[in-house]
Amino acid sequence: MHDDWAARIEAVWNDDALSDESRVERIDALAVERPVGDPVALFERAGARDSAGLEADAAPLYRAALDAGLDDVHRPRAVIQLASTLRNLGRAHESVEMLRAELSREPASPLHDEASAFLALALASLGREREAASVALRTLAPHLSRYTRSVAAYADELSAGTA
Q1: pLDDT digits (tens, 9 = 90+) for 21-41
Q2: Is the dihedral of CA 8, 11, 15, 20 positive or negative?
């Protein structure tokens, strides 16, 4: 049942012909098939609202999904999406706190780099552009074919205020 439900959720997300309003309605209709308080259903409802630009409606649903105990696949996505939503709602300080907590989790999430990208955005929203650039460069450095150490060192210098 859950695999079929997940496939139907995915089909809604992949249907580019849907309006934002229709996507929210369809996700909500599928969510009621799950038990009340199901964390993944709450997460999908939040994501639909977030995608539709209804961030104020999405935030409490993300929180409810996280509080209900999302699995290791959905939890980091919910943290990143809620942090992004909070930044868009003018609560970048809270976004930074959430993302820093996510980045310090062990074991590291497979979405570690993605969380770093959103941390950089939140820091920039707070006017902390040097720190944001440092986070972005520090995250990028391991993916470079050359100059990894140099870019990492420059990222540290930016963070320290010496670059």
Answers
A1: 999 999 999 999 999 999 999
A2: positive
Q: Are 85 and 58 in contact (CB under 8 A)?
A: yes
- Which pLDDT does position 1 carry in this prediction? 46
Distances (CA, A) of 52 to 13, 55, 132: 12, 8, 27
pTM exceeds cut of 0.90: yes
Structural tokens at position 149: 């150490």
| 20-31 and 39-51 helices, crossing angle to 10° | 170
Residue 2: the pLDDT is 62
Q: Which domains does the chain have, with CATH numbers?
A: 2-127 (1.25.40.10), 128-163 (no CATH)
Which residues have a Cβ under 8 Å from the Cβ of 158 and sit 6 or more positions away? 130, 131, 133, 134, 137
Residues whose CB falls within 8 Å of the CB of residue 13, separated by 6 or more in sequence, listed in order = 23
DSSP at 10: H
Amino acid code (one letter) for 24: V
